Amino acid sequence: MPKLASVIVFLGPPGAGKGTQAARLSATLGIPVISTGEMLRQAAQSGSELGKAVEGVMASGHLVSDDLINEVVDERLRRSDCNSGCILDGYPRTVSQALSLEGLLDRLNLPEPVVLNFQLASDKIVERLSRRRQCPQCGASYSVKHHNNSARCERDGSLLTRRADDNPETIRQRLELYHSTSAALVDFYRSRNYHEIRASRTPSHVSRELTRILRGSRPVTAIPAVHQTVLSATA
Length: 235
Ligand code: AP5
Hints:
By secondary structure, the protein is α/β, with parallel strands linked by helices. The protein has 9 helices and 8 strands. Strand 5 and strand 6 form a beta hairpin. Helix 2 packs across helix 3. It is globular and about 50 Å long. The protein binds BIS(adenosine)-5'-pentaphosphate.
């Protein structure tokens, strides 16, 4: 039987739980998460040319340019670990990015994406982002009940930090930007393999809803023989 590939796109406002669910789904499906936000944060941390170019934009809550992010995703999707698909978390964010992705998937012989749009009210978003803390070493994400500067990562004991863009002013800017750009993207995908996710429920409930949708969806395409060889070689 041919191996199957699936490409899953997570849309939705900041703090809706996309990253949380992407990590869970990646473990279930065995395909990588491509989080453009995470890739850009790592670039900023490393001080690379890309990092220097995007650091200020991200800290202000604006989007980095379509050309730059399309190039980053193009390079990443060509790696062999994406031959059986991937979860795209935070990309595309504009219609121009969606068109670029469409062309790229076609060139790579990957299927059209299943698009899952996370829905969450703004008051909940602000609450979640205010509570979010991350491990600077392993990237694990936490939700803290009370502000606590001495909270540590359960995995490696590192002091948890707050993301630079999780302050009230930047959260407001990110939300405004999301609301002004998301409608066009939803219009682009609505007539395709598009589903809305009730993201206000617990992470386990949301995971179950994703699994149910993906089971009933058509996210797959046969992987070309040349890609299967690569997979076997790296397995
Ligand atoms: P990015 O990193 O993509 O940020 P975002 O889209 O704003 O999303 P977040 O990571 O803030 O939220 P999330 O939905 O992943 O929520 P999470 O799971 O962490 O982008 C950052 C920046 O990079 C952008 O502003 C832009 O500058 C740039 N960028 C990235 N992609 C780009 C692109 N394509 N084009 C241009 N620029 C781009 O959950 C949040 C919190 O809630 C956590 O504490 C979590 O523990 C908790 N939580 C999760 N699920 C639940 C639940 N079900 N119930 C209760 N709490 C929950």
